[in-house]
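Try it yourself: sequence plus zinc ion, in.
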Amino acid sequence: MNALCTLPGGWIDRKGVRQREGVLRPLRGGDEEWLYTLPPHTSQASVLITLLARCVRHLGPYRASRAMIRMLPAGDCDYLALRLYRMTFGDKVEMVLVCPNPACGAKMDLDFDASLLPVEERPQLPRYTLRLGLPNAAEVSFRLPRIGDVEAANGARDPEVRLLSRCLLDIDGKAPGGEEVVAALPAEAREALNAELERVSPRIEDSIEASCPECGREFRTAFDSTALLFANIYRRRREFNHAVHLLSFHYHWPLSEILGMTREQRQRYVRLLQDELDLAAGMSAGLD
Ligand SMILES: [Zn+2]
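Structure, out:
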């Protein structure tokens, strides 16, 4: 079943209207199969863009496209990745952590409910302004960093400079120039700009509180919904292959139909089939 979601930031259409309502379809076997065949060093942002271009059906009244996904604030994409995780694997998140206390280093399991993860809604504006008060940059205008910017910054010599220069709209009313201009800004100005970007960007919580059951140390650990989604898909590759094999071998359904199923549908048939096979195995064992 498709899910309706309200994006924490939203996409701004050509008329300047913000669209926050999206329709997301669940992951299907075909998406999983596609993920398994990607070259190993494809950047996380590139994979997420393509996956969302496959799964986001609509943004407002528009049919979603890859170009539209590239224009979504990075926080909206984290949010959509978390929704895909919950639609595919349910609300429970299980993480294995290592205690950061050097004297302890115990391994621990951390479970939490993904539906309770705080989402900071900050509806996107086309333009933001920040006073830097520098002689050659008194005031800058910028837009929010998009997932397309994150993708473009990947592999840049200085990813932060690449990202900032893409988001700057003007400096004191003039076109901001290239990456050299951002690279030449004093460190405090870049820090102020980064802090402002963080303050106005939509986001989902990116760290989780934990406490070590062995030594009692309390700490926070990073949480990345996109990495969580991909890790959970990748570590089930054997299970996926086994399910697809079992269904095609016994039901003789065409592969396209099996790959059109969600994980939940697939699992349902696999369980039924497994019960039948176990029963048949038990009967033949009884006959021996
Ligand atoms: Zn510990």
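One thing you can check immediately is this: The pocket of zinc ion is lined by residues 99, 101, 104, 106, 212, 214-215, 217 (CB under 6 Å).
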